[in-house]
Amino acid sequence: MIGGGAVGLCVAEALVSRGGSVTLFERDRCGGGASAGNAGWITPSLAVPVPGPGVIGESLRWLVNPSGPLWIRPTVSPAMIAWIGRFLLSCARPAYERGLVAMQLAAAQAGPAFDRLAGRGAEFELHDEPLLYPAFEQSELEHLLNVADELRGAGAGDPLERLSASDLLGLEPALAADVIGGVIARGDRRVRPEGLCDGVRRALLAAGGEVFERASVDSLIRDGSTWIVESQSTMRRADAIVLACGVASTPLLAAFGVRLPIAGAKGYSRTFTAQPSGPRHALYLEAPKVAISAFDGAVRMSGTLELGARGLALSERRLAAITAAAQRALPGWEMPGQPLDWAGMRSLSPDGLPFIGPIPGWDGIHVATGHATLGITLAPLTGELLADLLLDGRHADLMAAFDPARAIGRGGYLRTLRATTGGPR
Fold first, then answer.
1. Are 86 and 351 in contact (CB under 8 A)?
2. Block mean pLDDT (10 aa), the chain, length 425
3. List of domains in the chain
4. What is the pTM (predicted TM-score) of this model?
């Protein structure tokens, strides 16, 4: 196992809990990457592909605003240009609707997968409370109601329900008085992501798993029917390898001539000590795309997808924009000084669906990456899907939508669109 974020840890734990022998390599510390500062939501209501109808127009509008919620860094990289081309193809409605159904099927299994993870002894902070979507403009409310209809049509297990302004203020008194209504996602929950990673790591070690932190993998070597994983500190032989290291999966696969299209999407968060004047519930601010999570003793605001980011330097402009959006929605919240600021790199596929499964042509190499903003939501389920495949040979129907083969090889995305959506020919 290469990668010790939420996804990699959950895959390793699922394998060990079923009797597998697992060694996990993490180049930094487990849970220290994209899992360290995100919202921690288990959120079927946001389980939708990033590309979709209308996204192109919004992206063009946000392109000139580096403080906007989605920003594509200008680049002349051939790989990034090709990635953007595939992203644009995936914005077509047929492709989006197909992806939406797949994501909703996965999201319906996400909550039970967390329950099974906890049942196996992993300890973590869990809040079994709904997510609120307040609206402050009529256009924002209409958009939320359209999303509710769309999710219902895609088979969402817990459809979004409309709330009046008084309903929302009764649930969350910290909201601004000019809220006009909104929706509630009763099927959503949240975890403290740092605690989740720590709890799963401890469960993995207790079950006999082996973990190497600050151990970058230098090379993967095919040796007969097995693989050799080399890092500066150690070497291990394996029957199978799972790459769950986000954008760092790309150079490891490229060594075998495999070009898996993954873009880095940097996100930001700010974490404050909880105050009586702050929010009690998780809130999603639709227009600025800002998530606000209330944890035990802390409140975190997060947002932004900065595609093509080259590093993890903090942007004061983006952090200020996230803060301003939260302050607009929660004007009475007395935010304490000296918050913990964070930036992390998510991995995003061109069609917005994760890559989960074997790499064609290379027996024994599997990936679990490209989860975008749903790494926490889908982490335990991803672990179960790969454990079923690797240990029992069971290939769940859901895996077809996430198969890496759809993106590998010449014209991979075009073939997928033609076969399944009636897309471009």
1. yes
2. 97 97 96 93 94 78 66 75 90 94 95 97 96 97 94 87 97 97 96 97 98 94 93 92 95 94 94 96 95 97 86 91 96 94 95 96 96 96 98 92 87 42 32
3. 6-421 (3.50.50.60)
4. 0.92
